[in-house]
Amino acid sequence: MHEMSITQSMVEICLANASGRRVTDVVLEIGELSGVVPDSIEFCFEACTKGTLLEGAKLTMEIVPALARCGSCGREAPVKTHFDPCPHCGGFGLALLKGEELRVKELELL
């Protein structure tokens, strides 16, 4: 389960930015096409934060919808996979603009 190592890395990022203060809330942005399973991150979060300044922190995950631009017609459209055709012209080879994010967006500290 790669979500465990992702969650461990996320906790390390939070601790590095908390400057020794207790973390009460963590907000993550997770893109729809990031390949990360939010439920697995949530499951791993408690185990990874045990005994740290993040223990007991509330985890909020904001899912970022995938959006792509068509190289043929130049229009933007939501997509559900990396291989969707353009819904406007049927072209392929869409350039993903967002939807692969995985970042710590916010920390609330005491």
From TrEMBL:
The keyword Glycoprotein does not apply. Keywords: Metal-binding, Nickel, Zinc. Pfam families: HypA. Ni(2+) binds at H2. GO terms for molecular function: nickel cation binding; zinc ion binding. It comes from the Bacteria. Zn(2+) binds at C70, C73, C86, C89. One of its GO terms (biological process) is protein maturation. SUPFAM superfamilies: DnaJ/Hsp40 cysteine-rich domain (SSF57938). Signal peptide: none annotated. Involved in the maturation of [NiFe] hydrogenases. Required for nickel insertion into the metal center of the hydrogenase. PANTHER family: HYDROGENASE MATURATION FACTOR HYPA (PTHR34535:SF3). This is Hydrogenase maturation factor HypA.
